[in-house]
Structures are given as C-alpha cells and as structure tokens.
Design a protein that fits this description.
single chain; 262 residues; mainly beta; Thrombin, subunit H; 10-stranded antiparallel sheet; 3 helices; 16 strands; globular
C-alpha cells in the first residue's frame, strides 16, 4: 500500500475504530521523526477506568483518496501484540502500527512512501488509492493554538440519527466547524465551541494555518454538560438531574501526544 504524506483533505484524516461490542470511536494516523506510524485516539475508546483494554482486537477503517470512490483501507489490530500506550493523566492513547519506508528506498520514482505494518496488523481490505498520515510537522502544540480561531473536527458520531431510518452513511465521517473558545492550560486541554457526541471520541481537531495547510492541534475527549434539575411537588419530593450537551467540548492538546510518540 502506497501512501501520500498529504496535509490537506480534512475528511480523510479520520479513521473509524470498530470494537467487537459494536461500539465505535474515531482515531487518526500520524508519524514521528523516526518515521514510526501511530494510531491516535482518546484513551477511553480503548481502555476502561481501571486502564484495562476493552477488547483484544479492533478494526480500523481508513478512507482513501481514490478518485473512483473505491473501497476504503481496512486493517485489524491485535492489541495484545501491539500494546497500546495510554497517557498517565490525559485522555489520549496511541498504538504503534508500523513504519514509513521512504520512497527512495523502494525505487527511484520518489513519488510516494510505503507503510510497513508491524506484526499484529492484518490487512483485511487493501483499499484503492492513497490515504493520509499526518506528519510531525503538521502537529502543533498548545502554544500555537489561537483562541477564537476556526477549528474543524472530523469523526464518526454513530449515536446520531434514527437506527431504523438512517439519514447519513455511518461508514463516512462528518465534518464539524467551531472555534477555540478557550485554553485550559492546567489540564493541557482546548475548549471548543463545538458540540460532540458518542462516536466523536478520538476525533482530530484541525486548524488551517496562513498557508491554508491543515494543522493537527488536539484529540476530542468529551462534551461539557450542563445539569438540568426538576423536583416533584409532592412529599417526599423527588429530584431528578439530567446531564445535557452544552454545545461546548474538550480536546486534549497534541502536547500530550508528543509525550507518547517522541
């Protein structure tokens, strides 16, 4: 499989994560200075509260840049062999899945590099066309995040819609636009004026720089709720609380990803 190190094409950044229990999440691929390739997602997509894995294997569906709209690239990851690395304090985790072999080591064309998967990765569908892996230079830390600047997130909010009357293709990502509402430096997180839903966890948060190139600035972690309470007028009074989506969300800055991949 040949890949292109592109930094444009927002929709192609998102990878669909499929767990055996039919739950879903979102992730994306990046490579570091050593040309090691990682799948990045929210920690809670792969781990429970006690930091045990939810399952032993996951499937990843990766959109390609096929001009004919051919099949996407699909792999299976054995998490026992590949050993995901969770962050100690932040809601982010990475899985090393392969290495990027430079094109000049393959042939003299110099057009594309090649992905060499690690043991524990099985290619289920060899997709048509190239797919995107974010380069280290496309990743920006929290000091480069600008409050009030437009952001985009790409993910698979599988909790939306009506199950018996689907309104969109759940195998394709949805793009959402918002702004950076603020920065919570104590937690190294970015507050977004952008609603997220189950399935969005692990989505890449993107900003376009002055050259109109994509920068990765964060990983979607959770929505910010607001609490609505109601009480009965009868004795004994019953109080019920509902946690509703405020429309704000939290993304872990890529600084925490740096700590795992560099």
């Amino acid at each position: 499989m040949l890949i292109q190190k592109k930094e444009e094409g927002a929709l192609e950044f998102a990878n669909l994560i499929l767990l055996p229990n039919r739950s879903r999440g979102t992730g994306f691929r990046i490579y570091n200075e050593k040309r090691e390739i990682f799948l990045v997602t929210a920690k809670h997509v792969l781990f429970n509260d006690s930091e045990s894995l939810h399952c032993n294997a996951i499937d990843i569906l990766c959109r390609t840049l096929s001009p004919t709209g051919g099949e996407d690239h699909r792999i299976s990851i054995d998490l026992v062999k590949c050993k995901p690395k969770p962050h100690v304090s932040a809601d982010v985790a990475v899985v090393k899945i392969g290495e990027l072999i430079p094109a000049e080591e393959i042939d003299k064309s110099g057009e594309t590099d090649r992905v060499e998967y690690l043991d524990g990765i099985e290619v289920l569908i060899q997709g048509e066309g190239d797919f995107i892996i974010g380069s280290r230079r496309a990743i920006k830390g929290i000091d480069d995040v600008v409050i009030s600047k437009d952001i985009f997130l790409v993910g698979f909010p599988s909790s939306l819609g009506l199950e018996d009357s689907p309104q969109f293709d759940y195998g394709l990502p949805l793009l959402r636009k918002g702004i950076v509402a603020n920065i919570y430096r104590k937690q190294s997180t970015i507050i977004l004026d952008c609603p997220v839903f189950p399935g969005n966890s692990g989505s890449p948060v993107l900003q376009f720089n002055e050259a109109n190139k994509i920068n990765l600035i964060g990983v979607v972690s959770q929505y910010i709720p607001y609490v609505q309470k109601w009480a009965s007028l009868r004795d004994p009074k019953l109080i019920n609380s509902e946690h509703l989506n405020s429309g704000y969300s939290v993304a872990v800055s890529m600084d925490k990803v740096f700590e795992l991949i560099d």
